[in-house]
Amino acid sequence: MANALDPHAASATKASGLAPSGPLTTADGQPLTRALARSSRRARRRALLLVLPLLLFILITFVFPIGQMLQRSVKNDGFSANMPQLSAWFDANDRSVEPDEAAWGALAADLQAAAEARTIGVVGTRINYDVPGTRSLFTSAGRKVKDGVEPPFRAAMLELDEKWGDPKLWSAMREASSPYTGNFYLAAIDRARDENGSIVQAPEQQRIYVKLFMRTFWLSFVITCTTFLLGFPIAHLLATLPTRKSNLLMILVLLPFWTSLLVRTTAWMVLLQQQGVVNDILVWLGVINDNQRLQMIFNQTGTIVAMTHILLPFMILPLYSVMRTINPSYVRAARSLGATSWTAFRRIYFPQTLPGLGAGALLVFILAVGYYITPALVGGSSGQLISNMIAMHMTQTLNWSMAAALAALLLGGVLILYWVYDRLVGIDNLKLG
Amino acid sequence: MKRTLILTSALVAIAATAHAQDKEVNLLSWGGAYGNSHVEAYAKPFEAKAGVKVTVSDADNPATPIKAQVEAGNVTTDVASVEYADAVRLCDEGLLEPIDASILLPAADGTSAADDFIEGAVTDCFVGTDVYSMILAYDDSKYADAKPTGPADFFDTAKFPGKRTMRKGAKFNLEFALMADGVPAAEVYDVLATPEGVDRAFKKLDSIKNDVIWWEAGAQPPQLLADGEVSMAYAFNGRIFNAAQGEGKPFKIVWDGQIYEMEGWVIPKGAPHLEAAKEFIAFSTSPEPQARAAEFISYGPPRKSAAALVGNIEGTDVPMGPNLPTFADNMKEALGSNLDFWVDHDAELNERFNAWLAS
Predict the structure, then answer these.
(1) Domain identity same for B208 and B344
(2) Of A262, A279, A314, B345, which residue is 20 to 30 A from B126 by alpha carbon distance?
(3) Does the keyword Chloroplast apply (chain B) (predicted)?
(4) pLDDT digits over A395-419, tens only?
(5) DSSP SS3 for B302
């Protein structure tokens, strides 16, 4: 630092009036470098203090829960933690070894201990995820073995219930003997493990998740397109009208935005149902007969209509804010140079709206992918989305690992799309307002 | 001196809060008319009698927050109202405090609580508070001549035209379909336990698939009936009763083919006011409060001695008795929901149901 060529050093030396050979100091005699470092450290600390609340908030409400959810989707120690002896046997013997008397003994002892500790239900629930119908096998066995089981254990257990001999059950117990498993992800893509541990497709009448994932992404795409088709002209109108008129129109856009989601969803039900306003008007006009009323809700159409309406402001607002900044003289210049109005729009105006369009499309798409209550209310059987299955596993079957696996896949899907978007359009090229 | 004073007052303050906390019960209920019956028939009289403050909060399904609270080790609820199936599951997973049946009060004539409760209403962690059921309801104005009388009519769209609404889920619908297909109530679960039985139920559902609007929230079926969207519903009896009784809608209930289930109290493991919670459960499951609760909502008391005590519908002079699922005449063709079956097969059959819906 104390370089003779440094002009600041020279002036500092002069000001402090010290001999040029000594280290630079401040007025109160401290070395300048240290004082500078300290003051910049203090500034940094103050800046950190300012963002600390936000950082903590994000950590506590976002990073931590998502991390926990991801952990839950691969970790379920319901079996391994409560059946230690049998888990140890599985560790020591690989898949080719048939369960011997030691294994059956470990099973009986673990069941007895789990029954006493009242954790037998946890064990049964864990296995029931992989082999439906086994939870009660565990709980009833727990009640019966409370007083102890006499050897030979295999015969004794099979006498309790011959289902204990099912190789599928043993395979599932082997899978569950490790607290970490990928089985929930397998189930979330309609796959399962057979008794040899190899991955197979789930029975045909039970395959649902892949279909729903595809439908979720497809419907979200359709809804993004419809919000664009409807929102683009509105945003353009808002951006080009004189302020007084456009403010009035803006309120019309915002008013539904401020209305409760449930109210808007219910309003669509009133409008679109078979005895609803739209059908009534069509019948009254004579367009359709009274017994041919259209089914416009409780199916995919209903989901698309209601969600498009609800998500429309998320498309209009970013588009509007970008369109406001577009200088109209560009289009005028293009027109004066001989472009048709279509060419001027396509080559000059539209490309300038892309940052707003990108932001709007991304917002609408991501919101649509996670939508739950609207499809639940107006979706009927064909308008269900994957979020409805996540909700089912959260609140009904209480299989939170499965819900977490489905949610993680959904999150992964959205992140991939985000990455694709970044590669195609560029995330810097995004304008929210 | 001053320090001593501060210290003493701090200790007194701590002691006072500790004392106040003993005399408190945090009740987690469902809200709506059902939650209101808990407030009016249980919470308020208990506050008046025992001098214990009861704080009632609501959840969509109290079983979900309880699981979260216990797993996170931050239990704030003392008593929660949950469905029987959830109670079985939570109890098996060790998330509930055991409830000693000996704390329950005997009936007025001295019959012990064990004999007075209907079968299955008291388990290791659960005490039943009410019985509700899924019933067939129809819009009387839609069927001028012949009226639906049982499950088979629900599936007969030729004789009884019009759309139906059913719960979006496997539970209740599969049993109902089998009953409509001629399986006697007593054999429904034996049939459903076989793969052929499940196929048979789905095949029966197939026959009306295009005529069904699926409901998800309990408030939807009466709304769909009132709007004229559907002419028949398979729905919770309390909701239909409220619309018919409270709002004068022309809805009729067919009790044949009802599937009944129970709701009741549980105590989450590590509840902060365990003793007060037990006191509250003992009081609220005694016959009189149970009968009183049934006057607010048409869910039947699970105690036999409470049935006779049920008076008129709150605010009217119409007797509530015949509107309860537990009324003797209503129980003739009734099916008790088999919880063990559903805890075992809930996920599997719901996946199949949803796949069936989507196909």
Answers:
(1) yes
(2) B345
(3) no
(4) 877 888 999 999 999 999 999 988 8
(5) coil
